[in-house]
Design goal:
Blueprint lengths: L1 H20 L6 H27 L7 H14 L5 H5 L5 H5 L5
Helix pairs in contact: 2-3
Amino acid sequence: MVLALLIGIPLAALVAAVPVAWGWGLSWADAGIAVVMYLISGHGITIGYHRLFTHRSFRASAPAARVCVDAGVIGKPMSDRRVSIGTVPDVTSEFSGSAR
């Protein structure tokens, strides 16, 4: 029930706000930009952060990895690019699953 409210209330607010703002501060160009940014950030997080950096499920050249990081940063507010590109040590792998 709580999850339904957490998803439903913002969705209902978005549906209610679009007709009010259409033509005044929202246009087809804005909707197109939102869709493109959603796709870029979604792919950056799922392909870049998750598959490339978390699981290392494929190898990428340095420029391709950089594009994945930059695309992921778009969708993850307050993220730090240094963690993803390896200039800050990864402390989670040091302590995860190890018996001490």
